[in-house]
Amino acid sequence: MSADTDSVPDVLGLDHTTVTGWGRTAPTVARLIRPQTYEEAAAAVRDCGARGGIPRGLGRAYGDAAQNAGGSVLDMTGLDRVHAIDADGGTVLCDAGVSLHRLMEVLLPLGWFVPVTPGTRYVTVGGAIGADIHGKNHHVSGSFSRHVLAFELLTADGEIRTVIPGTPLFDATAGGMGLTGVILTATIRLQPVESSLMSVDTERAADLDDLMARLAATDHRYRYSVAWIDLLARGAATGRAVLTRGDHAPLDALPARLRRDPLSFRTSRLPSAPSVLPEGLLTRTTVGLFNELWYRKAPRARSGRLQRISAFFHPLDGVPHWNRVYGRGGFVQYQFVVGYGQEDALRRIVRRISERRCPSFLAVLKRFGESDPGWLSFPVPGWTLALDIPAGLPGLGAFLDELDEEVATAGGRVYLAKDARLRPELLAAMYPRLDEFRTLRAELDPHGVFTSDLSRRLGL
Prior knowledge:
With about 450 residues, the chain is an alpha+beta fold.
């Protein structure tokens, strides 16, 4: 469970918990259940009560997907065993509560890496499937569920089903935000590596068109690619960015001193962000100064720098509770994708955000490859932009509603794992297989055993 929970006594004497997403917005109170065995998980599902229950991992969904006001939340992190590793074939069988951090600790010394990782390694395997997470390598490797060979799913009727790719239940669960059942175990295909270091190329792009041209022309050369984008820059510099791309460093690229232990997994850790920070810390002025310094300190072009896996993929994991820097009001992470051929829509949205002067210092642009099979899976071929915005910014709700309309008109969608505010009438336009998901869910769970704040808000 993340630190974003707070136990309070219920009027009936039961311990209930205030639960939020990583963005720390829209808190609700639920009964928290922590099963330690599959049998306890099944008992918890039977005992969810009239308001149902929802599985939860490490609490890194930004919005309300793993909350359930007045009902139950099943904290699955107690089921965290790695059952079997095929070091020759490159697969792992593990519980759904195992984190990607733990898998890296276990697998890297054997020459294997997780196939897909988002910007944090503190995500459980069950959460990775339920949100069908993507990373910097989607243009090459797709989303996490593309590498899942099978999983065991505890459904509302108490059955444990083995689910394989190519079946409707797999496609409904991958990206289904925990609403088809509780994932208990998963078998995952892994990525072979020769070292725990990355070979990284960095370059600056002068504006959004320059950035998109560089990504489109050369992304195919890299397994991993991402751009930090300055959304406070305006005029000729609108969309200026720092482009970072790389791949796992081969053994022969390492200096002699690093070849002695090439697969060691090292992480760095800075002091935790204080639990209470002054409000208004992230203003347009402070974020603008940070963005200017970040852009200027980046090299115009640099190739082959060796970097630890943790620094390349998960720099913010080195600051525990970094989400507190936004203050008590929390923040919204807004992520959308628009397809190739909709570059003008992307330009308009970036220009609107820049003109609105949204104080965002965590903004990234990436390219997605082929769509993934999940009916509610987020990635489609195109351009995806993610940005963090303080939730208390005046007029933010109305502004993001306008962006939603523009995204939907362009045939795009927003990411449900990061959403806490989308209007339900736009959902069907963004996710054309929504009716199939609703139909299967109604057949599988007619009494609504699995439910969440997200599912009630959007009518999933």
